[in-house]
Amino acid sequence: MTDVVDSDELLRRMQRARACARQEERTWRTRSEELRSTDPEGARDAAVRTVAYGAVLTVLEEILTPGKHYGSE
Questions:
Q1: What is the pLDDT of residues 31-57, one digit of tens each?
Q2: Residues whose CB falls within 8 Å of the CB of residue 25, separated by 6 or more in sequence, listed in order
Q3: Of the chain's two ends, which shows fewer C-beta atoms within 10 Å, N or C?
Q4: Chain centroid offset of residue 58 CA
């Protein structure tokens, strides 16, 4: 099933995806830090997820704000 969306709706969806990726990155970073001393393997898994969400966030940032450096926030 294919829905046709206008550019404004597409922009809103990408902005929501960026906000979600930003929140997930923070959540997994916190989880990794919490697990570091008690569960090294769990902390490593959480760190990998942090990197994955960070990559998604970087791509969405470049799409939504071309030329803006993600790390400068």
A1: 999 999 999 999 999 999 999 999 999
A2: 50, 53, 54, 57
A3: N
A4: 8
